[in-house]
Amino acid sequence: MKKGLLLLFIILIGAFVVRLYKFNAPVADWHSWRQVDTSAVSRTFVQEGFDVLRPKFPDLSKGVSLIDNPQGYRFVEFPIYNVAQAGLFKLFNTLTLEEWGRFITIFSSLVSIVFLYLLVKKYTNSRTGLLAAFFFAFVPYNIYYGRTILPDQSMVAALLGGTYFFSNWIERSKFSPDSIGINFQFSIAVFFIAVALLLKPYALFFSLPLVYLAWHRFGFGLFKKWQLWFFLILATLPLLAWHTWMSQKEFIQGVPRNNWLFNGNGIRFKGSFFHWLFADRIAKLILGYWGLPFVVLGILRKINKKENWFFFYFIVSSLTFMTVLATGNIQHDYYQVLVMPTLAIFFAKGIDLILETKDIFNRKISFLIIAVGIIFMLSFGWFAVRDYYSLQRANLFVAAKAVDALIPKDAKIVAPYGGDTTFLYYTNRKGWPVYDRSLREFKKAGASYIVFVDPTPQELNFENLFEPVKITPEYAIFDLTRPTLQGLKEQKKD
Fold first, then answer.
1. Are 27 and 39 within 8 A, CB to CB?
2. What is the DSSP string of 342-391?
3. Cα within 13 Å of Cα(6), Cβ side
4. In whole angstroms, what is the distance from residue 418 CA to residue 436 CA?
5. Residues 6+ apart with CB under 8 A from 167
6. Cβ atoms of 399 and 451 closer than 8 Å
7. SS3 label, residue 469
8. Are 257 and 63 in contact (CB under 8 A)?
9. Are 75 and 251 in contact (CB under 8 A)?
10. CA distances (Å), 161 to each of 13, 133, 323, in order?
């Protein structure tokens, strides 16, 4: 027991250290647009107060909902993550806002490792739990997404915590008519599951292991247990309340379109669907090719009476999630953060099978194959992920700094960046990251400047229409309130 905890502690220290890689780098790496959207809500809390029921960010475009969003509403997950990020920044001004966001995600990763170890250990053994914790801690894909400013890792941590405490409650509590069966385990499980759902409603897909545990104990009698219905109501009520609130007409412009996530491009069950998810993402990006055989062995391994089919419902949940949200999973590789516990569990079970089967496998060769397989898995995984840390366009920061110095703080700007909000975020201004209307409409909406990064000859032609604030090879800033003579003629034509 003490040895297992010591090894877990070493894994946690290692996981923390590797996630500090480029900890203070600007948020302009892979999926920076989603990260800055998250951080922008937190920054608004810092600047304008913690109006948790009306989260906002600086993007005023139609890109979120195809509806004009002049208030900059941002209604996605309930802003638990943002309150923590902004709150820590205001309480302890030792890190930047972005660094606090990364710290929260790193902490969430460590919490996930602990609960994953406890869950796997409970239904198998300590060695398998440690192997699962090791996988989750050191797979390069999970290292990167274990320090991004996204709520996904926090959701995974809450989901694993809720599953662990639910398993304790469902096994130990009395459910006789004269027994309430509600205790600390129940309360903490409800809390974690409710938080997971608020952070990401996709956690619903991973409720199947909980349903299995209830069915395994009660069979069809689970429908007669009012305690389970009470658990369901308490865990889902906050999510239902949040979605009812955000569905009001007042906020509809801040609710992102999400119907495309399901099968918006018709990719589900096509060859490219299987290639992208199972070959490119799981086999290559996450498992670095060499981790795949261990996962397969873990799936093929004969189950024991202790775990029964419990862990297989993690597979069912993962496959259901990826299938239902087919386009979302293809479009965004960070969605696969949700299936990491599943892969970790069966990776660990596969290696444990090799170590346990002494009569079939040569002991020394088995250790060698495992060592080589893990080294290659981590190496090839790192090769696939290493560019994720690279800054996408360095001149973005030069241009953003110039905007911050040359343009009034309250000015609204057009900062076209292909719809990516990263540039707009670093200008510290509200505005539009994409052309979603005419220049006349931009001015009517309150835009007073337009800024280009690495301006093209076509973009430099704005000098003929509006007075330039400053033009360099790295950026160009034009004042939309000061048209040239040609600009006035063009406006009359419009």
1. yes
2. HHHHHHHHHHHHHHH-TTTS-HHHHHHHHHHHHHHHHHHHHHHHGGGGS-
3. 3
4. 11
5. 119, 122, 213
6. yes
7. strand
8. no
9. yes
10. 20, 14, 25
Q: Which candidate, 427, 449, 428, places its Cα nearest to that of 439? A: 449
**How far is residue 200's CA from residue 335's CA, in Å, rounded to a whole number?**
11
Contact between residue 38 and residue 400 where contact means Cβ atoms under 8 Å apart:
no
Q: Whole-model pTM?
A: 0.95
User: Could you tell me the two tokens for 260?
Assistant: 């495309």
Amino acid (1-letter code) at residue 41: V
Residues 6+ apart with CB under 8 A from 62: 68, 69, 436, 437
Phi and psi, residue 75, nearest 5°? -105, 100
Residue 48: CB atoms within 10 A of its CB come to 10
Element (H, E) at 451: strand 447-453
Cα dihedral sign for 372, 374, 377, 381?
A: negative
Report the sign of the C-alpha dihedral through residues 391, 392, 394, 398, in that order.
negative
Residues in the chain: 494
Q: Which residue has the tokens 């194959």?
A: 369
CA distance to 162, 174, 348, 424, per residue, from 183 (Å): 14, 10, 32, 48
Antiparallel, parallel or unpaired: β 412-414 and 447-453: parallel
According to DSSP, the β-strands at 475-483 and 466-471 are antiparallel
- CA angle, residues 395, 396, 398, in degrees to nearest 5: 60
Query: Who's near 116: CB < 8 A, 6+ residues apart?
Result: 129, 132, 133, 136, 160, 341, 344, 345
pLDDT in tens, the chain (494 residues): 688 999 999 999 999 999 999 999 999 999 999 999 999 999 999 999 999 999 999 999 988 788 989 999 999 999 999 999 999 999 998 999 999 999 999 999 999 999 999 999 999 999 999 999 999 999 999 999 999 999 999 999 999 999 999 999 998 877 765 556 678 899 999 999 999 999 999 999 999 999 999 999 999 999 999 999 999 999 999 999 999 999 999 999 999 988 999 999 999 999 999 999 999 999 999 999 999 999 999 999 988 888 899 999 999 999 999 999 999 999 999 999 999 999 999 999 999 999 988 778 788 899 999 999 999 999 999 999 999 999 877 889 999 999 999 999 999 999 998 889 999 999 999 999 998 888 889 999 999 999 999 999 999 999 999 999 999 999 999 999 998 887 676 666 65
Distance CA 371, CA 365 (A): 10
Say whether 129 sits in a helix, a strand or coil: helix
Return the structure tokens found at 425: 């975020």
| Amino acid letter, 401 | K
Locate 149 and state its tokens: 């400013």
Residue 224: which residues within 8 A CB-CB, separation 6 or more? 218
- Dihedral sign, Cα of residue 230, residue 231, residue 232, residue 237: positive
